[in-house]
User: Which sequence fits this backbone?
């Protein structure tokens, strides 16, 4: 495969990663919303049940519904971060290939 084709491939992969990043960003926002709702709902239930306010924050972390929502949010964050990192990888690869192409062009006398 020639360098220009490889650069074009990386640019296409980068565009796909950008689209995937958008999708994963939306999923992250949804997971954050779900986590906040679960946390606040459970905190209000605990407060209404007479739990001391100082205890609620600590107890929320062990509550199954809150814990599961937090886990889902953290997983969505990891997926979003990996899509953003893929963009950087493809960008770097394209730059390296472009530098190599430019070097070969200069070595060949810039026909």
Assistant:
């Amino acid at each position: 495969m020639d360098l220009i084709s490889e650069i074009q491939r990386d640019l296409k992969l980068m565009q796909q990663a950008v689209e995937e990043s958008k999708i994963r960003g939306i999923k992250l926002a949804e997971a954050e919303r779900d986590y906040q709702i679960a946390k606040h709902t459970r905190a209000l239930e605990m407060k209404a049940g007479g739990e001391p306010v100082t205890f609620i924050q600590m107890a929320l972390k062990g509550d199954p519904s809150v814990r599961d929502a937090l886990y889902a949010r953290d997983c969505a964050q990891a997926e979003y971060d990996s899509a953003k990192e893929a963009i950087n990888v493809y960008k770097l690869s394209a730059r390296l290939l472009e530098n190599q192409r430019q070097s070969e062009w200069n070595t060949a006398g810039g026909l």
